[in-house]
Amino acid sequence: MNSGDGSMAKNLLTGAVGVILFLVLWQVIGAYRLAGMGWPTLTSVLDVLATPSRFGTFQRAVTATVRSVLLGYVAGFVMGFGFALLGHLWPRLKVGTDQTTAVIHAIPAIALAPLLIVFFGLAATPIAICALNVFFLVYNATSSGLLSVNNTHGDLFTAYGANRYDRFRWLELPAALPSIAAGLKLAVPAALIGTILGEWFGAPQGVGLLMVAAMQNFQIPMLWSAVLLSVAISLSMMALTSLIEHYVSHRFG
Amino acid sequence: MEPEQGVTAEPIDANPLRWLYSIFARFVARFWGVIIILGAWQAWVLISGYNAIVLPPPLSVLHQVATNLGLFAFAGLQTLAVAIIGTVIGMLLGSVAAILAWYSRLFSGLLTPLALIFTAVPAVALVPVIARLLGYDIRTVIAIVAVISFFPSFVFTGSGLRALPPGSADLFRVNGASTWMQLRYLALPAAVPHWMVALRLGAASAVLSAIIAEFAMGTSGLGSVFSEARDSFDMTRALGASLVATIISVIGFLLAISAERIVRDRWD
Amino acid sequence: MSVASIQPTAPEPIIGTAGIPAINLDRVGKNFRLDARREVKAVSDVSMNVGKGAFVAILGPSGCGKSTILRMIASLDEPTKGTLSVLGTTPADCAANHRMGIAFQDHALLPWLTIFDNVALPYRLAHLKADPGRVAQLIDLVGLAGFEKARPKQLSGGMRQRAAIARALLLNPDVLLLDEPFGALDAVTRRQMNVELQRIWSEQRTTTLLVTHSVDEAVFLADRVIVMSGRPGHIIREVAIPFERPRHPDVMRTVEFHHLVNELTEALHPTEGTGAP
Question: What is the pLDDT of residues A196-229, one digit of tens each?
Fold first, then answer.
C-alpha cells in the first residue's frame, strides 16, 4: 500500500532510478533493435541534438514553435476568459456560451484546419489551433472558478448590499483565480498539441514540421530529437505554470 | 441558481404558434454562438466573393455529405471503431499499471515521475514515432489511441485507488483483511468514479487522436478521406470529413458521458 | 480602548421614525422545496418584534428554523407567508442601503485580503470613503491590534471571529445580525468572546438579533430571549432578562442567572411531556 510514510529524499531517489531505468531501457531497445528500425538509441538521438551544424535548424524550429505557442496561448486565454465573463455577467447568455464552447471543442482541431488556413493563412494556423485548444480549457476553468464562491461569502455580500459589479470584482474574480491558474497549467500540453498539429499542415517552420519531414525521410534519430524538443518546451512551460499555480492557490485559496 | 428548474414539465401551449416560438427562443438561447459563427462564415463567403473551391459555404458542405453518405459513413464508422478499441486497450493497460503501482510501492516510486513527465508530452508528437515503429497500418492507429488514453487512465485510476472513505483502510487492516480483499472490496470500488472521469477525458481525445493518426498515415478512416481531399484540393470534401469527424467525436463523447452517468448513479 | 471616540461614518438611518420596531415579523412562514412534489415547513407562523437598541436572542435546538428567521431578516431568504420588515422597509432595501451588519458561524473572511482590508470591506461594498482610523479603532476594540497585516489563515478561530465582529460593526449598522457567531469555538474561547461582545455592545447599543443554541450565551448577552422549537419552527417561550448593563462576567455566577438558565433549559428540553427529541 502506498501511504506516504516514505521520506521525501527516498521518493526522489526512487523516482530518479525510474527515470534512469527508462533511459537505459531506451538505449538497450535501440541498440539491440528490439523494437525494429523505428527505435533509435538514446545516444544517437543525443548525438543529433548535439551536432553543431544542426543548431541553426533546431533554434529556428524551436523559436517558431515557442512563438506560436505563446501567441496562441495568450490569444486563447483572452478569448476563453472573455467568453466566460460574458456568460457570467449576463446570465441569459450563459447557456449559449456553454453550448458554443462545447460545440467548438467537439470539432476535432484537425477538422477545423482547412477553414483556419483559409482565414488565417498557413503560418498563423498553428497559432489558431493552439488558441482554440487553450480557449476551451480556460473557458471551463474560468466559468467553474467564478461559480466556486463559498456560500457564506455570497451571503455576506448580499447582506452588505453589494452590487453585481462589486460582487464580481471583490468576490467572484479572486475566488476564481486558483481554478484559472490550474486551467492555465492544464492548457500547456494542449497548446503544444495544437501548435504542432497546425505546423503539420504546412507551416513554414517549427518543431512539428521537423517531425513530419524526419518521419517522411526515415530520419529516425532526427524524429525523436524533434519530439524531445517539443517535450522540453512543454516541460519548461509546465514548470513555470506550476509555480504560478502554486503561488495563486496559496495566495487566493 | 434557481433550483428545480426544468423538473416540472411545462404544459404545451394551446397556441401552436406560441409553442413554436418558445422552442425557437430556447434554440436561440442555446445555440446563438454557433449560429453567429455559421452566419459569419456564410456571410464571409458571400461578401468576399471567395471562390467556392477555396472556401465552400456551409450549405454545399452539407450537400457533399448527403450525396456521399456511403463513403463518409464507412470511413466514420471505421474511425469510431478504431477509437473505441484503442481506448479500451489503453484504459485496461493504464488501470493494470495503476493497480501494480498501488500494490508495490517500489513500482509506484519508479513510475510516478515518469508519468508526470509523460503528461507534459504533447500527444500528437507520438504519432509519427509510433507510425515509424509499427508501420503504416490500422493497428498503428489503435496503438496511438491506446497510448494516448493510457496516461489519463493510469493517473486517475491511481488517485482513485487511494481515495478511500476516511478510516476504512484502518478498519480493513484491523480486521486482518488480505491485500487482495483490500483491493477487491475497498480500493477498486473507490476507484470506479475516477475511472469514469478518465474514460470521459480519454473518449474526448480518442476520436481526435484516431483522426490525427489516420491523417498522418493516410491509410484508413476519416483521417485518410480528409488527407486525400486535401491533397486533391477538394475543399468541400475535406470540410465534409470535418463535419462527420465532429459528429463522430460528439458520439464518442456522449457515449462516455452516459457511461459515466450510469456508473455514478449506481455508485452514489 | 475608549469606544465613545468612535464616530459613525455611515449616513443616518433612512427610516428613523420612532415607535416602529427595528425588526418586525408578522405571521412569517417559510417552506423549502425538496423536489418537484415535496416541501418542508422550516418556519411557521412566527411573529416577533425587536425594538430599537434592544438585544434579542433566539434560542433553540439545531434545525428549529432560528437561522432561517435570521436569514430572512438579512434578505438571504424570502418568506413564503406573512410579512417581515426591517427599519420599516423590506430586508432587501435595508441591505441595499448598507444598514445591516452580519456575522456567521463561518467567519466568512476573504482569504485573499488582510485583516485590515477584511474589516474595511463594507466600505467598499457601500461605496463609502474608507476611514482607516475607524478600521484601526475597531480592530483595536476587538483586541486584534497588531494583526492588521495578517491574513485570516494565519489567525486562530477566535481571532477570525473577532475580525468578523469588527467587520459587522464597521458601518455602525442599525441592525446587527449574529448567526451562531461563536458556534465553532471551544467553550473557553466562546465564553471570553461573550464577555467581550457584551462589553462592546454595552457601549454601542446597536439593535442586535443573536441566534444561538447556547442558553448561557443567550442569557448573558440578551435583554430578551425567544425560545423556538422545531418541525416546523415556532416560538414557544419569551423571557425577559433583567440584568443591568454593562454586565460583569460575575453575573453568570448569580443564583438569578442559574435560575433563568434552568428555566430556559427546561423550556428547550422538557423533562417530561410532549417535546420532540
Answer: 999 988 788 999 999 989 988 889 999 999 999 9
Nearest residue, CB atoms, B125 vs list A16, A105, A196: A196
Residues C33, B3: C-beta atoms closer than 8 Å: yes
Q: Return the axis-axis angle of helices C157-169 and C187-204, rounded to nearest 10°.
A: 20
Distance from CA of B56 to the nearest CA of A (A): 10
Stretch(es) of chain B classified as CATH 1.10.3720.10: 58-267
C-alpha A101/C-alpha A90 separation (Å) is 16
Q: Which residues of A touch C121 (CB under 8 A)?
A: 160, 170
What the block records as the C-alpha cell of B17 is 404558434
The CATH superfamily of A40-252 is: MetI-like (1.10.3720.10)
* Nearest by CB: B133 against A38, A99, A227: A38
Q: Which residue of B has its CA nearest to A3?
A: B162
A149: closest chain C residue by CA: C110
Q: pLDDT, tens digit, for every residue of A120-162?
A: 888 899 999 999 999 999 999 999 999 989 899 999 999 999 9
- Extents of the domains making up chain A: 1-39, 40-252
Q: Of the candidates A198, A195, A176, which has an alpha carbon nearest to the alpha carbon of residue A234?
A: A195
Contact C74, C211 (CB under 8 A): no
Q: For each of the domains in chain C, give its residue range(s) and CATH number, in order of start.
A: 19-98+176-271 (3.40.50.300), 100-172 (no CATH)
- ipTM, two decimals, is 0.84
- Kindly determine whether residue C121 and residue A170, on different chains, have CB atoms separated by under 8 Å: yes
As a whole number of angstroms, the distance between CA B66 and CA B58 comes to 13
Superfamily (CATH H level) for B58-267:
MetI-like (1.10.3720.10)
